[in-house]
């Protein structure tokens, strides 16, 4: 009695009629309700086989209304074109894929107003959790407090803000900066230039603090004339062009240097481009190291040596954390709290853009 496309979708009642059981029994079995343990194994098997043969698909929307659950998790990114997001989203997707939760990705396009609008829509649609993949333009938005009052589990990837129930997953930027300068030092570089991130950005100061800690330990002199900063008001993707401009600025100081440590990979790409245009070989005359290990770093020419953030792992941890938060809410509406702030240790991925200092 299989319905055709013209006669409408297969319903629970159709499965019940075909299998010869009541609609309530079929519903209990297909929804794996607690009462299903009292249904005979042969009955369960027949109902499931009939359901599959007829092509029955449960009405997820109706089921969510009955349970007052949306079974959706919001993933907010500030700029989905930012290569930094790619592997984080991959880690989130891999973790959520085996579950019954539907991820909904929202791109705020670096607009705080759009971010706020999406948060309002989340509240209206009863999304069950929120993961924010923050870039350097993220600002503390009061709307997050509303999600906290609604006991919605929240995790931020890449940044940490002081909201009680929001946990965070990020890289240990200071350890990454330390490792970057240590790598250049081991290659024999002693005169090193720095293209730092925006001064107001915490990531930038933490990475440079790590570099300064290593410099102090080994007695490495850092010349102030060889330190330049990306501007504060900057689109993340324009770091490439600013990397070009600031490298040209360094080349006009008259100060010699054999290596450049860039704030991130996009900035490092700009550094390499500027050096190439000025006839400076990389790494023959100047080594360059970045930070992040975005997907294009391995494909760049020369392949970019960089401090690798474990971005896919960061996404996986964030997804696991909101799932635990949802489970906690199922037991006690007050149980979901701060699940901690995790800082993962980065590692240096060595490619062709760094080499031993040559006389």
TrEMBL record:
Domain of life: Bacteria
UniProt xrefs under Gene3D superfamilies: 3.40.50.2300, lambda repressor-like DNA-binding domains
Pfam families membership: LacI (PF00356), Peripla_BP_3 (PF13377)
Signal peptide residue numbers: none
Keywords in alphabetical order: DNA-binding, Transcription, Transcription regulation
A GO molecular-function annotation: transcription cis-regulatory region binding
Coiled coil: none
Keyword rRNA processing on entry: no
SMART domains: HTH_LACI
Chain ranges of the HTH lacI-type domain: 10-67
PANTHER family assigned to the protein according to its UniProt record, in alphabetical order: HTH-TYPE TRANSCRIPTIONAL REGULATOR GALS, LACI-RELATED TRANSCRIPTIONAL REPRESSOR
Protein name (record): LacI family DNA-binding transcriptional regulator
């Amino acid at each position: 009695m299989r319905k055709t496309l013209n006669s409408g979708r297969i319903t629970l009642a159709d499965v019940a009629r075909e299998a010869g059981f009541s609609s309530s029994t079929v519903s209990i079995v297909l929804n794996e309700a607690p009462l299903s343990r009292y249904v005979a194994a042969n009955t369960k098997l027949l109902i499931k086989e009939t359901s599959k043969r007829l092509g029955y698909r449960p009405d997820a929307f109706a089921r969510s209304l009955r349970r007052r659950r949306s079974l959706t998790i919001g993933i907010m990114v500030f700029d989905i074109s930012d290569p930094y997001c790619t592997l984080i989203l991959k880690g989130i997707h891999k973790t959520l894929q085996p579950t019954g939760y539907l991820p909904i990705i929202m791109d705020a396009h670096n607009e705080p107003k759009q971010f706020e609008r999406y948060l309002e829509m989340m509240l209206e649609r009863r999304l069950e959790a929120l993961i924010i993949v923050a870039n350097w333009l993220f600002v503390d938005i009061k709307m997050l407090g509303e999600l906290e009052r609604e006991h919605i589990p929240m995790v931020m990837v890449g940044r940490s803000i002081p909201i009680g129930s929001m946990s965070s997953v990020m890289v240990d930027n200071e350890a990454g900066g330390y490792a970057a300068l240590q790598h250049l030092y081991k290659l024999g570089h002693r005169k090193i230039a720095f293209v730092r991130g925006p001064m107001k950005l915490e990531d930038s100061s933490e990475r440079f603090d790590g570099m300064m800690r290593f410099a102090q330990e080994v007695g490495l002199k850092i010349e102030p004339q060889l330190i330049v900063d990306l501007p504060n008001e900057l689109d993340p993707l324009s770091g490439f062009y600013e990397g070009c401009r600031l490298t040209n600025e360094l080349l006009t100081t008259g100060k010699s240097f054999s290596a450049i440590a860039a704030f991130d990979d996009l900035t490092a790409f700009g550094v390499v481009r500027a050096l190439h245009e000025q006839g400076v070989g990389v790494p023959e005359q100047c080594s360059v190291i970045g930070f992040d290990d975005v997907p294009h770093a391995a494909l760049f020419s020369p392949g970019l040596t960089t401090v690798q953030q474990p971005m896919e792992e960061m996404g996986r941890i964030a997804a696991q954390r909101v799932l635990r938060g949802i489970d906690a809410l199922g037991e006690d509406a007050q149980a979901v709290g701060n699940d901690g702030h995790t800082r993962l240790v980065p590692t240096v991925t060595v490619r062709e853009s760094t080499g031993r200092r040559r006389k």
